[in-house]
UniProtKB/TrEMBL annotation, chains A, B:
It comes from Brotaphodocola catenula. Belongs to the ROK (NagC/XylR) family. Its EC number is 2.7.1.2. Keywords: ATP-binding, Kinase, Nucleotide-binding, Transferase. InterPro entries: ATPase_NBD, ROK, ROK_cs, ROK_glcA. This is Glucokinase.
Length: 315, 315
C-alpha cells in the first residue's frame, strides 16, 4: 500500500494538538487531547498513541498508509530525539520519539523543538510556502525562533539554535531577562516586553496618550491598536520594538541569508502595520544589498506546530 | 580506477593558489599561478586548467583518479555556480565552475564564495577538525565569515550568508563602512578597525601609552602587542574589540548554535590572548546556557581556501 498520510503531534503544556495530513500538506482532520503532566508526564505519550490509534480506526485508515508521525516538544531536543529535561511536561531523561514509535507498533517517529517545528510548518504550508529557507520569529509571551535551511531545521548542537529572543540588543537595559541576560530582544519585542515598554514610557514622560487610560494593565494589543490610531506614545513604543526586531533580522540575513522572515505569534496580529515598521529598520541595517530576504506574516497560527511536525517525517 | 584525489583552487586577486589532495585531507602538493585580470579576467580559468593539467602530468596522476576540483571565488556565488559579477577578478555573467569543468574535460567542478570555502577548509583539516558545525570569523583587512552546518556551507539565497563583518553592533559610530552601513563589526574588529580605534583613543585622551610612538601609523599588531605588554590604552582597545566580537558570536550561537567558533585572519595571530578576551564577552552575552560552542584559533592560514575548495567536491 502506498504510504501517503502523515501525523503531526504538537505537545504543549496544557493540551496536545494532533493533525492527520496528506503528504501534499492537506489537513484531513485535527484534534486535541489534554496534556496529563502528573507523575513526570508519564501518561502523555500513551495518551497520544491511544488517541492516534482511535482516530485511525474511526477514519478507517490502515497503519500501513502512514509514513510516520512527527512531534514538537516544548524544550531542547537532541539530534537523536533525546530529551534531557522538559520542565513544561515534567519529562526527564527520555527519548519521546523512540517511546512513541514503540507505542505505535514501530511507525517512524521524528521529533524537534516546538518553535523549530512551527517554523518548518510555516515553510511548508504557511507564510513561507514556496520557499526552502526561512527564519520564523514568534512574538508571543516570549520571543521564539526557528531557522529552516534547505527545508530542514537547523536545530543546533546544544539546542540553542533559533533562540533569537535571547540575542542581546539593548545596552541601556537594567532589568534581567528570564535567561539571566540583560537587554535581550525578548525584553522589548515580546507581548510582555511591549507592555512594559509602554508602562515605562508613560512613567518617564507627560506626553498625553490614549494608553494612559489602561494604566499598568496596558497590553501589547493596546499599544499596537493605539499606534495604528496615531497615538504618539504608542508609536514611539512600536518604533523601538521595530528597530530592535529589524536589527536582529538584519543580523540573521547576514548569517544564514534566508529567502523570507516569517513573523508569527500573538503580537503579529497587528499585521502589515507592524511588518512595515520592522522592514524600515531591517533595510536601514542592511545597506549592503537590496537583494535579500523579504518579511511577511505567518499564516497557520496555532496549527503551525502540527503542520511542521507532520512535515518532519517526509524527508 | 578508484577516484581518490581531489584538487582545491583558491582564486585571489593577485594569485591563484592550488592544492592536490588525497581524499583523506592529506596535501600532496601545492602551487600558485598569477591571476591575470586583464580583459575581464578571461585568462584566469584557462591558466588554472593548464596549470592543473601540467601538474597532473608531472606527478603522473591520471585524470580518472581525480574526484573533482573545488574552487573558491572572491565574491558572491549563486547555488548553481553562477557569478553575476566579481569585481576583484573582472568577471561578469559567468559560471566559472562550468567553464573550468569544460576546460578540464568534464572533471566535476564545484565552487563557492572564498570566505565560506575557507571555513569549510578549517572544519575539514584546520582549527575545527573533528567538528561538523562551525562558524569561522576571519579578522583581516575586513571581517569575513563562513557558516558550516552538517559539514556543508550555508551559502545563503542572495550571497549574504556569513557576511558577519557587516552586522551592526555600534550605535554610537559616526563614520560609514564600505557597505554603506554605520557601526558594522568590521569597523571595530578588522585590522584597519583596530588601528582606527587606537588612533581615536589616543586623540580622545591624554593617557600615556606605548602606542603613541607609532602615531597615526599604529597597526592592529602594535595594539595587540602592547596590550599583551599591559599597556592601558591598548588594553582598552582590545576590550572594545573583544566585546563586539563576543556579542556577535553570542548572536551566532543563538542562531545556528555551532560546535565551535574558529577565529582566523591576520589579527588572530595575537593568539589565545585575543581568544580569552572574546570568550569573556561571549560568555557574558550567553548566560542562557553553559553548554555551547567553544572558541578557538584557525590553523591553516592562507591554505584554508585550497583545503576547503578540495573538500567541496567530496560530498
Amino acid at each position: 500500500m502506498e504510504k501517503k498520510k502523515c501525523i503531526g503531534v504538537d505537545i504543549g503544556g496544557t493540551s496536545v494538538k494532533l493533525g492527520l495530513f496528506e503528504k501534499d500538506g492537506t489537513l484531513i482532520f485535527k484534534w486535541e487531547v489534554p496534556t496529563r503532566k502528573e507523575e513526570g508526564g508519564r501518561y502523555i505519550l500513551e495518551d497520544v498513541a491511544d488517541s492516534i490509534r482511535r482516530v485511525l480506526i474511526e477514519k478507517e485508515i490502515h497503519k500501513d498508509e502512514i509514513v510516520g508521525a512527527g512531534m514538537g516538544v516544548p524544550g531542547p531536543v537532541m539530534p537523536d530525539g533525546y530529551v534531557e529535561v522538559c520542565v513544561n511536561l515534567g519529562w526527564h531523561d527520555l527519548n519521546p520519539q523512540k517511546v512513541l514509535s514503540d507505542l505505535l507498533d514501530g511507525i517512524p517517529v521524528k521529533s524537534g523543538n516546538d518553535a523549530n517545528v512551527a517554523a518548518l510548518g510555516e515553510m511548508w504550508q504557511g507564510g513561507g510556502m514556496g520557499y526552502t529557507d526561512i527564519v520564523m520569529v514568534t512574538l508571543g509571551t516570549g520571543v521564539g525562533g526557528g531557522v529552516i535551511i534547505d527545508e530542514k531545521i537547523i536545530a543546533g548542537k546544544h539546542g540553542l539554535a533559533g533562540e533569537i529572543g535571547h540575542i542581546h540588543v539593548r545596552d541601556e537595559e537594567t532589568e534581567h531577562c528570564n535567561c539571566g541576560g540583560v537587554g535581550c530582544l525578548e525584553q522589548v519585542a515580546s507581548a510582555t516586553g511591549i507592555a512594559r515598554e509602554a508602562r515605562r514610557k508613560m512613567k518617564a514622560t507627560d506626553t498625553p496618550s490614549a494608553l494612559r487610560k489602561f494604566g499598568d494593565d496596558v497590553t501589547a494589543k493596546d499599544v499596537l491598536d493605539e499606534a495604528k490610531n496615531g497615538d504618539d506614545l504608542a508609536l514611539e513604543v512600536v518604533e523601538t520594538v521595530g528597530r530592535y526586531l529589524g536589527l536582529v533580522l538584519a543580523q540573521l540575513a547576514m548569517t544564514v541569508d534566508p529567502q523570507m522572515f516569517v513573523i508569527g505569534g500573538g503580537v503579529s496580529k497587528a499585521g502589515q502595520f507592524l511588518i512595515d515598521v520592522i522592514d524600515k529598520y531591517y533595510r536601514h541595517y542592511t545597506p549592503i544589498s537590496e537583494n535579500k530576504a523579504v518579511i511577511g506574516l505567518a499564516k497557520l497560527g496555532n496549527d503551525a506546530g502540527i503542520y511542521g511536525a507532520a512535515r518532519l517525517v517526509l524527508d
